[in-house]
Specification:
The radius of gyration is 21 Å and the shape is globular. The chain has a single domain, classed as Rossmann fold, CATH 3.40.50. It starts with a strand and ends with a helix. The protein is built from 13 helices and 14 strands. By secondary structure, it is α/β, with parallel strands linked by helices. One of its GO terms (cellular component) is cytoplasm.
């Protein structure tokens, strides 16, 4: 069996860095034997990856789609430095898997990676696979607006492709646009694509750079500004959650199955949810209030309700759609396909400490500034 080369994007991020750490510690021999290369923005953080024993390929931006396509097509893993000049290198026989965690919202770079894999597959005959990271805000509804309400729990063994297509026709959303581009570009080019769609992620990351997630830390930071926990509207929206280590173990098992030639859902069936539990937004805010009061950094254990407009203004270039879908919606999912592959999440019990862990990490960061 030839060596597989895994090209990982977004390795300085929370998910990507944790995926890298998980793969490097994998007990699966066919992952241990894979060559892993990371595509990162700029030279400045190259040294962060020295302990991982991976090649680093620097670039400037996901907008460099010509570079990304050529890299996906021709890279042979032997001379990463040459890729700064788009130098042509001889293609040798290894297959390549791309794990894209760099951005769930950058449509053109995802398409360029898949098109590059198609170029490679045409030239070498080697099979390739594209694993893309997304989030369940793509299936979120609009309970505040309200322009669309989704009362159902969605299962990934149903036709999520058609569901996404229908939702996108009703209202475009950049992350969902990218999901559909991954589906459709893979189908058009005969490249196998699999999307792993994560809900709220909790737990400390294990990568070399960013070790904090997005949603819970964002609400904690906002509570510190208000001196009180906050929730958008009534906080009744329900989301699922997953520990970062359980999420990265799903990436690991998908790569293992791809490497051994076992079936992994792809094409229109190629979407895997990843969940272990469920919460409301108010649940998180109440936990923030309780922990913040206990740590003596919030003035009360009460939760302050804010409007969607006020919450949108939290960001300089605030986007009301992103704020509602990502921090106030319902996004109920059930991970059937991953469990059928043998995925067994183990860390749900740590959810009860998720807010406190992030709170302490954020306070530590602020004290060290």
């Amino acid at each position: 069996m030839s060596q597989t080369r895994v090209l990982l994007t977004g390795a300085t991020g929370y998910i990507g860095g944790s995926v890298l750490a998980t793969l490097k510690k994998s007990e699966h021999e066919n992952i241990q034997n894979a060559q892993i290369d990371v595509l990162i923005r700029g030279e400045g953080r190259r040294a962060l990856f020295d302990p991982f024993g991976v090649q680093v390929i620097p670039f400037q931006s996901l907008d460099e789609t010509d570079f990304i396509r050529k890299l996906s097509s021709d890279y042979d893993g032997r001379d990463a430095s040459s890729w700064n000049q788009l130098t042509s290198v001889k293609i040798i026989d290894p297959s390549i898997v791309i794990i894209n965690t760099a951005s769930a919202f950058h449509t053109e770079s995802a398409k360029a990676m898949i098109e590059g894999l198609s170029d490679r597959q045409s030239k070498t005959g080697q099979k390739t696979h594209f694993i893309h990271t997304s989030g369940t805000s793509s299936i979120g509804d609009y309970p505040i607006s309200p322009t669309y309400i989704e009362p159902n729990e969605l299962q990934d063994d149903s036709n999520i492709y058609e569901y996404q297509s229908s939702r996108e026709a009703h209202s475009t959303y950049k992350q969902r646009t990218t999901d559909l581009a991954v589906f459709n570009t893979g189908l058009e080019t005969n490249i196998k694509t699999t999307i792993i769609m994560a809900p709220t992620i909790f737990g400390k990351g294990t990568g070399p750079a960013n070790n904090l997630s997005i949603q819970i830390p964002a609400l904690i930071r906002r509570s510190l500004e208000y001196k009180q926990a906050v929730v958008i509207n009534d906080g009744a929206g329900e989301w699922d959650h997953i520990h970062i280590s359980d999420l990265t173990s799903l990436f690991e098992i998908v790569l293992f199955k791809v490497r051994t030639g076992e079936h992994v859902p792809d094409g229109k069936e190629g979407l895997l949810f990843a969940e272990t539990g469920r919460h409301t937004w108010l649940d998180i805010s109440k936990d923030i209030a309780s922990v913040g009061k206990e740590l003596k950094v919030l003035d009360s254990e009460g939760v302050h309700n804010v409007s969607l407009d006020e919450a949108t203004a939290w960001s300089v270039n605030g986007n009301v759609q992103v704020r509602e879908l990502g921090f106030a919606s319902n996004a109920r999912s059930k991970a059937i396909r991953g469990r059928a592959l043998g995925w067994t999440p183990l860390r749900e019990g740590e959810w009860k400490n998720a807010v406190e862990e992030d709170f302490r990490a954020i306070l530590k960061e602020e004290n060290e500034r």
